[in-house]
Design a protein that fits this description.
With 977 residues, the protein is of the alpha+beta class. It is built from 28 helices and 32 strands. Helices cover 44% and strands 21% of the residues.
Length: 977
């Protein structure tokens, strides 16, 4: 291409090779980095923020196409086109029923949910229908219908595109922020929406947890072994929440490492208290005032477009009144071409929301009550969320807590930055400083099943799995030890009346899942024997770090008593199986079983059948299980002690007669060994809340989104092709009027280019306005074929001087090398005969031919006009440089490999004929003691295992590249944050 390109690739004497190595390293890093970039999405009701992290780039907020840090969570459809963000909001003013916003809280809701009724009341112009299969919310736009998951998925796709544009890499993994009060239906619906957007969800993180993590990672040095308590208060567009958290350094028992831990201790929330409710009330107030003016007989509330205009103005007015005591609401052509202008004071606005302000402190008080802490132990109350900027809110909170509020967080971006740190921690390719998060269960989950009582009547038993404010992720085990036949149980929310009071319906179905167990009797009959005892059916449940509940597995637990005789009678195949088991477990069978039991103990084992009901008069299985475990541990300890005593006795009484030892061994009583066996129990889980989008329904939604994506791609391709054609036409017309380009073209070429440009311009403004992308691309290629010949000549004339200058520098360098090389031949320097006369002559000839060729070609080229075919091209020059470079490289490499010839080793000196005895006699005669000289042989110094002698070279310090590596860096595929 240009001069810089060939200077780097062909002139590789020194810098070229380094460049290739650098490019190889960069290519390797890019290939690793492409799989490493991750993002977080704060998908709020009103605004969407996207955080990104990629190798070598710190955590940052991705900018949208308007270079802004947050984007309205709005999507609009019109005439087959789809727009997002501010464009969708603008379109929504003209066509409000086609523009959808504030969608997040509709996830996982059936059509009869109170939150859906509230949404319809706030936005009456939407056509909302029921999904015939899942009973969820569907928006209808003309003949098209969109489920709530499809709309959210499209917003996530936009977030993904912003993140990819910011990092320049493909992104497939993310952490999504959700309100803490989201239940199972909402969380699984959001995961389904992410799947539709081709995103893998690493975790759903609660908003207050993400903020607390962000707050902690920048104050890591302030955290110590003493717990510090903070309260985070958030008021957003849709809801308000408060969370009490603790920060503390905790030592991990397994790794013995100390890490900071942030733990959620208490949470309070209000689903409907937020800026949106205030904005809706102000909209309705403005609408009533307009109707009172009597400018038109049409009711403003009956016109969707007028309502959309009022809603937009109410949002602007609400923000202005946060900083001003009064402001005018102004809308041109609100209804029937009538303008609207009204002065609104802050006092009037606050009067509209008086009952809302009374609810401001309730979430804070609920969070404190749930945590069991008093306000005086809280270090700070920290604000985040857009509506905490309202002065009235801050005054209420300050007077309630009696201390200043902390406003040192970025209210908009704190959650997003905390979530992206978590994403880097969970993703492969990053190494971050560990910061452990422990979230808390808001809605308790219980298991409900039927059991036969003493009277024979069935009664319902409830056992809590995950209690309120229990930390998660967490595993639980429940033991059913009274059921001997197939049975079923349900999983439900618990204690909602005390937590939500009148708002329990907002969670939807109280029942979460129905689990049916089969083959119970069959497994018991085939497994229980004389030496095998059933310990009950254990159901393993899990609440993962996204707060999503699942049944891991169900198994029948058996205990088999194995005696020494049973061990001796063990078959060959059983022994082989045990041996293989030991190989994989790394220990004996007994120890492997103990590890398994220990793992179960970490999972809080609860007995479902025993319980604490004294009326049943039954032994509590949980206590029995624990007792049996203790008995087993005691027996194992006794066995160990007994073995130790026997071993000691055997060692200490080695002198005893064999007969006595044999008698003692016979009289010893062998202790039985208890082995735990597990049999899987088939289970069928039927979800009873809003079913996640899956199966055929998911595939149908994916096809609809794919079709929309194809439309967008075709639209983008057409716009790109049209812009490229228009730009090339204008550029060609301008260049043909410039002397430097016109001088490179003939009169016929100039006339042809101008004619083609005029023809295309007329076509674009007449028949070409509705053409497709392929037509634009074809016309552009035709015009380029005419103009590129002229452009190529101009480029050659512009680049040739730089290319000739580079050739001159190479010739000068080659001549300098040649002068030094003449002194490294056998004739000029016998000790350093590196090059032969033929090699010197070949290089000299190459230099001479290159100079002659250059001078001849430059002279011939100067005879030609600028618009004639080019004789001396840049490629010709680079080819000559490449030929000369190869000749020089050959000699340079030979010089590097040359070693001086080895000098012959001199023969050893002859020994004296006088023997040792003669020397001793001579010393005795003279009375002097002379040292006896031993014969010394000259030895060639060893080097690298050889005896080759080389001239001594100056010491060169080797630099270890790993010395400059930062702590924690292990390679190009890890980035330390």
């Amino acid at each position: 291409m240009g001069t810089r390109h060939w200077l780097c690739t062909d002139g590789q004497s020194t810098g070229g090779k380094a460049l290739l190595i650098t490019l190889a390293v960069v290519a390797l890093f890019v290939s690793v980095a492409n799989s490493a970039a991750v993002m977080s999405v704060d998908l709020g009701s009103e605004w969407m923020k996207v955080g990104v992290v990629s190798p070598g780039v710190p955590m940052e907020i991705a900018l949208n196409k308007e270079s802004k840090r947050k984007t309205p969570t709005t999507i609009a459809f019109r005439n087959g086109d789809r727009v997002f963000g501010e464009d969708a909001q603008t379109l929504g003013v003209r066509f409000p029923s086609n523009s959808f916003g504030y969608l997040v809280d509709l996830l996982g809701k059936t059509i009869d949910n109170p939150m859906v009724d509230l949404y319809r009341k706030r936005f009456p112009y939407y056509d909302i229908v029921e999904d015939p299969v899942r009973k969820t919310v569907v928006f209808r736009v003309g003949e098209d219908q969109y489920t709530i998951e499809e709309l959210i998925a499209q917003l996530l796709q936009v977030a993904k595109s912003y993140a990819e544009d910011s990092t320049g890499q493909l992104i497939t993994e993310c952490v999504l922020i959700v309100p803490g009060f989201f239940g199972q239906a909402e969380r699984t619906a959001l995961v389904s929406a992410a799947r539709l957007a081709n995103l893998k969800v690493l975790q759903l993180i609660n908003d207050y947890t993400a903020v607390a993590l962000n707050y902690g990672i920048f104050r890591r040095k302030e955290i110590n072994e003493t717990a510090q308590y903070f309260l985070f208060y958030d008021m957003g567009a849709y809801k308000t929440s408060a969370a009490v958290v603790s920060y503390q350094l905790v030592k991990d028992k397994a790794t013995r490492e100390t890490h900071p831990v942030v733990q959620v201790l208490g949470v309070g929330f209000d689903r409907t208290l937020g800026g949106l409710e205030m904005q809706v009330r102000l909209r309705d107030y403005l609408g009533k005032e307009f109707n009172k003016m009597g400018k038109t007989k049409t009711d403003v509330f009956s016109n969707p477009r007028a309502m959309a205009k009022l809603f937009k103005e109410a949002g602007r007015l609400k923000n202005v009144l946060s900083a001003n005591t009064e402001h005018y609401a102004q809308i041109e052509g609100l209804l029937d071409e009538q303008d609207f202008r009204l002065l609104v004071t802050r006092e009037q606005f606050e009067g509209l929301n008086k009952d809302l302000y009374e609810r401001v402190t309730a979430p804070l008080d609920k969070a404190l009550a749930a945590s069991g802490l008093a306000l005086d132990v809280i270090n700070q109350v920290v604000l985040f969320g857009g509506n905490t900027r309202v002065p009235k809110m801050q005054d209420i909170l300050s007077s309630h807590i009696g201390q200043p509020l902390a406003k040192n967080l970025n209210a908009d971006e704190a959650a997003c930055m905390g979530a992206v740190y978590r994403a880097a921690d969970l993703a492969t390719g990053f190494k971050v400083k560990k910061f452990i998060t422990k979230d808390a269960v808001l809605f308790p989950i219980q298991v409900v099943f039927d059991r036969e009582g003493e009277s024979g009547a069935m009664r319902q038993v409830r056992r809590t799995l995950f209690g309120a404010m229990n930390s998660y992720p967490q595993k639980k085990v429940i033991t059913f030890n009274k059921h001997t036949d197939d049975f079923e149980f349900t999983v439900q929310y618990a204690e909602l009346e005390s937590l939500l009071k009148d708002e329990a319906g907002t969670l939807g179905s109280i029942e979460l899942a129905r689990v049916k167990l089969s083959e119970v009797a069959k497994k018991l009959k085939s497994s229980v024997a004389e030496n095998v005892e059933s310990k009950g059916i254990k159901a393993h449940f899990m609440l993962d770090d996204s707060g999503i509940f699942s049944l891991a597995n169900v198994e029948l637990v058996l205990e088999k008593t194995v005696t020494k005789e049973d061990d001796e009678d063990e078959s060959t195949f059983q022994k082989i199986g045990n041996t293989i088991s030991k190989l994989f477990s790394g220990d004996s069978t007994d120890k492997s079983e103990k590890v398994t039991e220990g793992a179960e103990k970490t999972e809080e084992d609860e007995s479902a059948d025993g319980g604490k009901d004294a009326k049943d008069g039954e032994k509590e299985p949980e206590a029995g299980d624990k007792q049996s475990t203790k008995d087993k541990e005691a027996d194992a300890a006794k066995d160990t002690k007994a073995d130790g005593k026997e071993g000691a006795a055997g060692a200490g009484e080695a002198g005893k007669k064999p007969e006595e030892g044999g008698a003692e061994a016979k009289n010893a009583t062998a202790k039985p060994k208890i082995v735990t066996l597990k049999e899987p129990i088939p289970s069928k889980v039927e979800l009873t809340y809003v079913a996640p989008l899956d199966g055929d329904l998911f595939e149908a939604s994916a096809k609809r989104l794919s079709a929309l994506d194809e439309v967008d791609k075709a639209k983008k391709r057409r716009e790109t092709a049209l812009n490229a054609l228009e730009s090339f036409v204008i550029d060609a017309q301008v260049k043909m009027d410039e002397q430097e380009y016109a001088s490179c073209a003939t009169e016929e070429e100039i006339a042809t280019i101008r004619a083609r440009c005029s023809e295309i311009s007329e076509w674009l403004y007449e028949d070409g306005t509705d053409a497709d992308a392929e037509t634009y691309e074809t016309k552009l290629e035709d015009l380029r074929a005419v103009a590129n010949e002229v452009y190529a000549r101009h480029w050659e004339h512009e680049e040739r001087p730089q290319a000739l200058n580079a050739l001159k520098q190479m010739i000068n360098g080659s001549e300098g090398f040649l002068r030094n090389a003449r002194n490294l031949t056998k004739d000029s320097n016998p000790e350093k005969d590196v090059f032969t006369a033929v090699e010197i002559e070949t290089l000299e000839k190459a230099i001479r031919n290159t100079i002659e060729w250059r001078d001849t070609e430059v002279a011939e080229q100067e005879k030609l006009a600028r618009n004639e075919p080019v004789r001396l091209t840049v490629k010709d020059i680079t080819d000559r440089m490449g030929m000369l470079d190869r000749e020089v490289k050959y000699l340079v490499n030979k010089l590097k490999l040359w070693r001086p010839k080895i000098k012959p080793t001199p023969p050893p000196k002859p020994e004296k004929t006088t023997g040792k005895e003669g020397e001793k006699e001579e010393a005795a005669a003279t009375g002097e003691e002379k040292p006896v000289e031993e014969p010394v042989l000259e030895q060639t110094p060893e080097k690298d295992g050889t005896t080759e002698t080389e001239p001594e070279e100056p010491t060169v310090e080797e630099i270890d590249p790993t010395a400059t590596r930062k702590d924690g860096e292990e390679g190009g595929d890890h980035t330390e944050l």
